[in-house]
Structure formats: structure tokens, C-alpha cells
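Priority: low. Protein: Glyoxalase/bleomycin resistance protein/dioxygenase. Input follows.
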Amino acid sequence: MPVSHVAIRVSDIASSKAFYDAALAPLGTKIAMSFQDGKMLGYGGDKGPDFWIREVTGEDAKPQNRPVHVAFEAKSKEEVQAFYDAAIAAGGKDNGAPGPRPQYTPNYYGAFVHDPEGNNIEAVYFAPTA
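Result:
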């Protein structure tokens, strides 16, 4: 089942935008759409947005449904490293430095960071198998 898009709720759109602008740039992803006066931002590539962040307030802003885990596919180990470096520089917190994760699959190479809202964001590269 292919996934069309994913949306997560954030309490501060400005800090989340700054984080995702920086963290997703090495993966070739940028804002493709904006709604609700900039309170809902869709990130994507040529096909349009497939990852959304939406600012919520009041009771909806409580973190009872967090953390969310989202993995973005990278094209190389170098892209995984660039994602990790950019995410950390943008204020992300380390949750697993770039490296192999053979406990998942033999060809899994990923890096994990917590975004400003505490969500677990990952870049993963699936190396070709021999």
C-alpha cells in the first residue's frame, strides 16, 4: 500500500518550518504548497507535497499523540549524512547518528533526529544488495 502523504501537528509553525526547511533540503524536498495563511505547509518534490506540517492551538496542541515517526528515503549514504547534519544544525536533537541498522534489514542505513516538537524524523538509504 503506497502512502500518498503524511501530516503531523505542530505547536509552533515557525520553528518547525525552519527545522524542516533545513533538514529536508539535502533530500531535495522543499515547500510545495501553503494553506491557512502559512499555518499548514506541504513539503515535496516534483510530484507535489507528500509531507505536511500543520500548526494547531489550544487542546489540539497538547502532545498526547506524539511522538510521530516519519522516515524520508535518501538516495545515498551521503544524503543521510547531509540530512542529519542539517537537522542537527537546525536545532534537531540526535536520536541515532548515521550508520547501518542491520537489525532492520541488511541494507538499511539511517539517521534519526528529534524535531523541535519531539517527533522522531529519519532519513534512510536502502543500499543495493549483492
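Residues 77-89 form the longest helix (13 residues). Helices lie at 13-24, 77-89.
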